[in-house]
Amino acid sequence: MAKSKLEYIWLDGSEPTQGLRSKTKIVKDFSGALEDCPMWSFDGSSTNQAEGGASDCLLRPVAIYPDPDRRAGFLVMCEVLNADGTPHPTNGRATINDDDADFWFGFEQEYFLWDLETNKPLGFPANGYPRPQGPYYCSVGAGNAYGREVIEEHLDLCIDAGLNIEGINAEVAAGQWEFQVFAKGAHEAGDQVWVARYLLERTAEKYGLGINWHCKPLQGDWNGSGMHANFSNSLLREAGSREVYDTVCQAFGATPDVIKAHIEVYGEDNHLRLTGLHETQSIDKFSYGVSDRGASIRIPIATVENGWKGWLEDRRPNSAADPYKVAARIIRTVRSADVMQPA
């Protein structure tokens, strides 16, 4: 009788930034299908999601991928439910309004490989700093790119797990890297980002390294880390008009309350990153523009060259943001735009 390892992965109740948790369930003669993953439970009092007197929280499987790093293993992404089956307050996935998967998302996930002994990015000397920014972005060579073995292993694991990872690159600061994930459907995009994050944490763990998701772990003239959100729906993919794009972009800056609602789910401490420097707009301003990486919303040149049919990039979400909550907020704002939907 064959046995399989199902790694149930979920988001905890840590504040202000949720973290990943997981545990293994052994099942017999498992089919590999999502519908054959049983509901499970965990002690919510140990994850800041329940009181000790009524501590059971439920895990509802929502996505499954083969685990290429474990024999007979599967990665099972889960939503957290209350004991009565309703979405837990920490369940950002349940807030997404995209049941028809009309919204497509591509997330650019930046992060730092972190030396746990020096408490600095990998590649930083124990005392002092490396050379200033300049040679590290998309770099090659032992003096420029730090931790490539970790990054390459993670990339292979993501591909073998069936995630739609679209690329990797060294980023602007020393020890900083990025991967990109794309999916048709906001739920699936969020699932894949979280599983990719989980695999990265587990890969770095093997090397005795940490992953620093904070948006600005280094003060001074060093880039922060973002999770730029590239998004489209049928309206943007079929628009064929600059006016449609202007109307949608203007909806994101329609009122101070709308701007605030986005910033509230775009990651903690974003004021440290959104300063108007290092390819960002200031957190207290909103702007958009074609090919403008200093704007809140960038209209890619590819969208313009394709006759105003394409996508937008919200550059404000930071590296520690929850892609579920980011997607949910973007969808709500795009739907609020006063523009005719395509026939």
UniProtKB/TrEMBL annotation:
MF GO annotations: ATP binding; glutamine synthetase activity
Family recorded in the similarity comment: Belongs to the glutamine synthetase family.
GS beta-grasp domain residues: 4-85
GO biological process: glutamine biosynthetic process
Domain of life: Bacteria
InterPro entries hit by this protein: Gln_synt_N (IPR008147), Gln_synt_N_sf (IPR036651), Gln_synth/guanido_kin_cat_dom (IPR014746), Gln_synth_cat_dom (IPR008146), Gln_synth_gly_rich_site (IPR027303), Gln_synth_N_conserv_site (IPR027302), Glutamine_Synthetase (IPR050292)
Domain GS catalytic: from-to ranges: 87-343
GO terms under cellular component: cytoplasm
Main enzyme class: ligase
Protein's UniProt name: Glutamine synthetase
PANTHER family: GLUTAMINE SYNTHETASE (PTHR20852), GLUTAMINE SYNTHETASE 2 CYTOPLASMIC (PTHR20852:SF57)
Function: Catalyzes the ATP-dependent biosynthesis of glutamine from glutamate and ammonia.
Assembly and interaction partners: Homooctamer and homotetramer.
Main location: cytoplasm
PROSITE patterns assigned: GLNA_1 (PS00180), GLNA_ATP (PS00181), GS_BETA_GRASP (PS51986), GS_CATALYTIC (PS51987)
Subcellular location: Cytoplasm
Chemical reaction(s) catalysed: L-glutamate + NH4(+) + ATP = L-glutamine + ADP + phosphate + H(+)
EC number: 6.3.1.2
Keywords recorded for this protein, A-Z: ATP-binding, Cytoplasm, Ligase, Nucleotide-binding
